[in-house]
Amino acid sequence: MLYYFSQRILEWAHGGEWESRLAFLRLFRYITVRSAGAALTALVLSLWLGPKIIRALKEMKFGQEYADRAEEAGDFKTRILSKKGTPTMGGVLIITSLLFSTMLWAQWNPLVELTMLSVLVLSGLGFYDDYAKILKQSGGGTPPRVKLIVQFALAAFVGIYLLNWPERSELILAKGKTGFDIYHSNLVSSLMLPFYKYPLHVGAVVGVVIVMLAIVGSSNAVNLTDGLDGLAIGCTLITGFVFLVFTYLAGNIKLATYLQIPYVPGAGELTVFCAALLGAGLGFLWFNCHPAQVFMGDTGSLALGGAFGIVAVLIHQPFVLVIAGGVFVMEALSVILQKGWFKYTRLKTGTGQRIFLMSPIHHHFEKKGWYESQVVTRFYILCVLCAVIALATLKLR
User: Fold this and answer.
1) pTM tops 0.85
2) Distance (Å, rounded) from C-alpha 244 to C-alpha 231?
3) pLDDT by residue (tens digit) across 284-328?
4) In the chain, where are the structural domains located?
5) Comparing C-alpha atoms, which of 239, 165, 272 is closest to residue 387?
6) Residues 220 and 150 sit within 8 Å (Cβ to Cβ)
7) CB-count burial class (<10 Å; 0-12, 13-18, 19+) for 384
8) Cα dist. 2→99, 100, 113 in Å?
9) Quick one: which H or E segment has residue 388?
């Protein structure tokens, strides 16, 4: 909104005595300036709204008045405080700050609008799930099948929309000293792999499947990570910084050409979205750090995870998400392996066996005697390492 407002003022002042006085409004044309504004706006807004939303959640009794599944399943001797009674649905704070700041500072285009719409849908799904848990007061919530149907339906819509989107990514590769090879690729039917600079044509069906797996997988992986104070939002901030860099580079044709990565028209505006995500996430971390005053719940985790999947697809880098979000992948795999091995061994031997003491894997380390803050800090370190490797793919190609 501010971009369009500033440009209208500049058009009005053009050729008049006010033109030189209002020249500073040209700053709104720069993505870097608007990204900084979005981050700061989201941070201030979340810090201002935080106490109000937490108070409202307590008054409406939107709290976790039941022991979470981790506490029910095992005795954590190192856990100092119980999670019982802490307000949930704090994701409302993140999503409100994120969407408002993005709308205020971004130059709207189909990529930004598709991302915001998807975040809103996934946040609504998470809100319904959190509300169902509160009503049942048993940790139940929306049936997993219903959640997956909605997630896959949204992801399929995104994939089919991008498959028919007229814009193409542009990859310009130097061809010795004789010139350049230029590849124009669809965001869905062509695939980019980390450490490999040439696009691979995979076809429409496979491409849509990859898009669906990226969005649904990322959404649920962040959701599974949200089990300890500050863990999910901290890893989200680190991963979000990676995509802040990638979206800026993907939207700048000169930098994209230099680094030999796909240039996607309009992707630069996703930098504003990622910056707003960082600001909103930092503000939420203020209230979510140990001991947490509020949990994001599925309202926040499903939306944030889905946002990563969508942004990764929109900049033609879905597999970079696997690297940057390595901690999320590890959490999701621990659950899949635990359930799969338990069912397999029960079928074969009659007694189910476990790989980990408990899944997701952050609870495994709690069971081994790590304090909650130790788990969170060490997972932060792992997430930073994954982020560095993801950024390294820009040069190691």
Assistant:
1) yes
2) 20
3) 999 999 888 999 999 999 999 999 999 999 999 999 999 999 999
4) 2-7+32-392
5) 239
6) no
7) middle
8) 14, 12, 16
9) helix 372-392
Q: Which amino acid is at 230?
A: G
Between CA 155 and CA 312 the distance in angstroms is 13
With helix as H, strand as E and coil as C, how does 2-42 read? HHHHHHHHHHHHCCCCCCCCCHHHHHHHCHHHHHHHHHHHH
Q: Which residues pair with 63 in a beta bridge?
A: 87
- Pick from 272, 273, 275, 251: nearest CA to 261: 251
- The helix (H) or strand (E) run that includes residue 200 is strand 200-201
DSSP category for residue 172: E
Q: Which two tokens stand for residue 196?
A: 């490999």
Question: Is the four-CA dihedral 164, 148, 382, 46 of positive or negative sign?
Answer: positive
> How far is the C-alpha of 318 from the C-alpha of 247, rounded, in Å?
12
Q: Which token pair is 26?
A: 């040209």
Q: Write phi, then psi, for 87 (nearest 5 degrees).
A: -60, 140
DSSP character at residue 109: -
Work out whether strand 190-191 and strand 179-185 pair parallel, antiparallel, or are unpaired. Answer: unpaired
> Can you tell me the distance from the alpha carbon of 372 to that of 378, in angstroms, rounded to the nearest whole number?
10
Element (H, E) at 191: strand 190-191
